[in-house]
Specification:
The chain is α+β, with helices and mostly antiparallel strands and 383 residues long. It has helices at residues 2-13, 90-101, 125-140, 147-162, 169-176, 220-235, 248-254, 261-285, 289-305, 312-322, 350-365, and strands at 19-28, 40-41, 43-56, 61-66, 73-76, 109-115, 181-186, 192-196, 202-208, 327-332, 340-346, 370-372, 381-382.
Length: 383
């Protein structure tokens, strides 16, 4: 990969790159729409990701080029930047902006990006490019920010520069992920455990529904706001900072404070999903994969019925999985509204599963889904 990218860099910039970096994508095993509610999530980094090669220039501009996109940008060094349009380079540009707000003075740079994470598919291609750029600039210019600071800065790009009220899970998983491990992250305290993700005879299949969506245009921010409304209603009686401080039992005692039926459904999902993550972490630790799989199905059901962020495409995949004997658990992963599902698939059944699922999906949805088997990989690093 790196050799090919070096050639592309040379031909586009007529100079050699002087450094290169990689950041993965992520899947979330369970704990969906929980991070911005201060609860527990269980993501892991995957081996697909984004690469960045760079070299200084003496023209006082930042050149953004990508192997994946035709659009490129040449942006003069300035003290601050604004998002312009929806082009991909707004994500790394946002990182320059945030770092410069911390008193860093950028100098001319030629940048080349390449990614093999499907874009807009719920595997965090945007968080990957943010963390990648933040990590690379921090390392290359010795800016001395630790990884957690870079995670927070990347989240701030997403929230303030791009305009999506996402939580911290994606950036965190991409920065701190480790091969063959899942993270159990408390999104309120930001304390986390690295746990063995030993799936025994099973493996993680990722199914891309090929239904893409732009998160900031979707209902994501609406869900974020609805959780805020639920929290405010509960705070009339109880002193909590976020919905995930409540167990299902405690929630039941106070849920009458939420009078709007839709808001109640959203809050019920959040509280019960958070409880499921505790159970799932225990199940994984004990090697009880069937229980883990059962919790995955329950998570999906709740995201479909209560949080209403699934959709025909994701439901079709999960319905198929629940009738396929060699899958013990499946659910949508990430924000939803399209994008990817994950399944625990018995090893050796990759081909049969892909064929049968594709046939079923095409009949139901009208176009094919794509199935990937990625390993659980490392977080961001120099390569
Ligand atoms: C997106 C966001 C995350 C998280 C998930 C849903 O991936 O970027 O912060 O909220 O959706 O769990």
């Amino acid at each position: 990969m790196k050799e090919q990218l070096i050639e592309v860099f040379q031909s586009r910039y007529q100079q050699q790159p002087t450094a290169s970096y990689f950041a993965p994508g992520r899947v979330n095993l369970i704990g969906e729409h929980i991070d911005y509610n201060g609860g527990l999530v269980m993501p892991c980094a995957i081996t697909a990701g984004t690469w960045l090669l760079l070299a200084p220039n003496s023209d006082s501009v930042i050149r953004f080029k990508s192997v994946n996109f035709e659009e490129e940008a040449i942006i003069p060094i300035a003290k601050s930047y604004k998002k312009t349009g929806t082009e991909w380079y707004n994500y790394p540009l946002g990182v320059f902006h945030e770092l410069q707000q911390l008193d860093w003075n950028a100098t001319g740079l030629d940048l080349l990006f390449f990614g093999n994470i499907p874009i807009g598919a719920g595997l965090s291609s945007s968080a990957s490019i943010e963390v990648l750029t933040a990590f690379a600039l921090n390392d290359y210019f010795n800016l001395n920010h630790d990884k957690l600071e870079l995670v927070k800065l990347s989240k701030s790009v997403e929230n303030n520069f791009i305009g999506l009220n996402s939580g911290i899970m994606d950036q965190f998983a991409i920065a701190f992920g480790e091969a063959d491990k899942a993270l159990v992250l408390n999104c309120y305290t930001l304390k986390y455990k690295v746990v063995d993700c030993d799936l025994g005879d099973y493996q993680l299949a990722i199914i891309n529904t090929n239904k893409t969506r732009k998160l900031e245009e979707s209902k994501y921010n609406e869900r974020f706001a609805q959780c805020g409304t639920a929290l405010a209603a509960l705070q009339q009686e109880i002193n909590i900072h976020n919905l995930c401080e409540l167990t299902a039992e405690k929630f039941a005692l106070h849920s009458h404070l939420i009078t709007d039926e839709t808001i109640l459904k959203r809050a019920t999902h959040v509280v019960k999903e958070n409880d499921r993550v505790h159970l799932a972490a225990k199940a994984l630790n004990m090697g009880e994969l069937e229980e883990f799989g059962r919790l995955m199905y329950a998570s999906h059901q709740s995201l479909k019925e209560l949080y209403e962020v699934s959709g025909k495409e994701l439901d079709t995949v999960v319905d198929f999985c629940s009738g396929y004997e060699q899958v013990i658990g499946a659910r949508m992963t990430g924000a939803g509204f399209g994008g990817c599902a994950i399944a625990l698939l018995k090893k050796g059944y990759e081909e049969d599963f892909a064929k049968q699922l594709t046939d079923y999906y095409v009949t139901e949805v009208g176009y094919p889904a794509v199935i990937y088997i990625h390993q659980i990989g490392d977080g961001v690093k120099a390569v």
